[in-house]
Design brief:
Blueprint: H1 2-22, E1 25-33, E2 40-46, E3 49-56, E4 62-68, E5 74-81, H2 84-89, E6 94-100, E7 105-110, E8 119-122, H3 124-155, H4 159-186, H5 191-197, H6 210-219, H7 237-248, H8 256-274, H9 278-294, H10 298-307
Parallel strand pairs: 1-7
Antiparallel strand pairs: 1-4, 2-3, 2-5, 5-6, 7-8
Helix pairs in contact: 3-4, 3-5, 4-5, 8-10, 9-10
Length: about 300
């Protein structure tokens, strides 16, 4: 009898513990300045798709949500509402993205400029991510400026200055790549690191002409990218990479027919480099179909459905 009681008590404890684990929640708290009194929406992200999952209102400059262990790890978005200017001009609402990976999240920001004014008070994932994004923004701005200088001095046939600028340009790109790899290696067990890994890019060699640089960049675009992590579907990194590749395959001077032809080539390249995982493969195909539907490019939708 005692043995039976012990077994029953043990089973009861297991059930209670299992319930507690399944019900585990984490707080998402935003301390925000200048937030208007409107409905605030929390939703999940899958590429361009936003799925609302909860709503609330600001109380004493605090926004609070809860996410649970049952919510998938990924990027979530808080729609804060529209500024007065956005309402008049029919512009998008203010929003703030964050990573959820089974931890409490505490952020501080300003409604008028949520991303620029953001401070991560608590959340390892978001500290890693937003520290990277801040550095990445600076590096990208410096690289864009340097590339313009490289082209300018090559065009002027100022070989000495062009060579110096080309070396600076190439070195900064290698520094950026090292920064990405160091971040990934330091925080390899985090979701943020998996997202950051997707920021790797081929070197745009400053010693090549602008046209050769573009061609080389397109040829090697997918070389360092890994599209096998299903969890990254719950973010914008896969869709952003595909969108950017389609953008660089386009040209303002193309006729509609030329554009369709180039996009067909781009689709083949994208599929070849993103089909190693079936769920990711299907996600990318759906993303492209949705995009071409918005652009009313029915021939490309047919091309995808007929070939893939």
């Amino acid at each position: 009898m005692k043995g039976l009681k012990f077994i029953c008590s043990g089973l009861f404890l297991v059930v209670i513990l299992a319930f507690n684990v399944s019900a585990q929640s984490h707080n998402v708290t935003i301390k925000i300045s200048n937030q208007p009194n409107n409905e605030i929406i929390l939703g999940s992200i899958k590429g361009d798709e936003f799925t609302p999952i909860d709503t609330t209102e600001v109380v004493n400059s605090i926004i609070k949500f809860q996410l649970y262990s049952s919510n998938p790890t990924g990027v979530y978005r808080i729609i804060l509402g529209k500024t007065a200017y956005a309402r008049v001009m029919n512009k998008p609402p203010q929003q703030l993205d964050f990573i959820y990976n089974n931890e409490d999240v505490f952020l501080e920001t300003d409604f008028m400029d949520p991303a620029a004014k953001l401070k991560v008070i608590q959340s390892n994932e978001n500290k890693i991510w937003y520290d990277f994004i801040a550095k990445e923004k600076i590096l990208k701005e410096e690289l864009q400026l340097l590339e313009k200088e490289v082209d300018y001095y090559w065009e002027r046939k100022d070989t000495s200055t062009a060579t110096m600028k080309a070396n600076e340009f190439n070195q900064l790109q290698m520094d950026r790549e090292s920064f990405i790899m160091q971040t990934v290696n330091s925080y390899g067990d985090t979701y943020a690191a998996n997202m950051i890994k997707m920021y790797s890019e081929p070197i745009r060699d400053g010693y090549l002409s602008a046209e050769q640089r573009d061609d080389d960049y397109k040829t090697n675009y997918f070389n360092k990218l890994d599209f096998t992590d299903e969890s990254l579907i719950n973010s914008m990194v896969y869709s952003d990479k595909v969108f950017h590749f389609l953008v660089i395959c386009n040209d303002k001077g193309f006729t509609p027919e030329q554009r369709e032809t180039e996009y067909e080539k781009a689709i083949d390249i994208i599929v070849t480099n993103t089909n190693q995982n079936e769920k990711v493969h299907q996600f990318i195909l759906d993303y492209m179909v949705d995009g071409f539907e918005l652009l009313k490019m029915d021939k490309l939708i047919t091309y995808i459905t007929d070939n893939y």
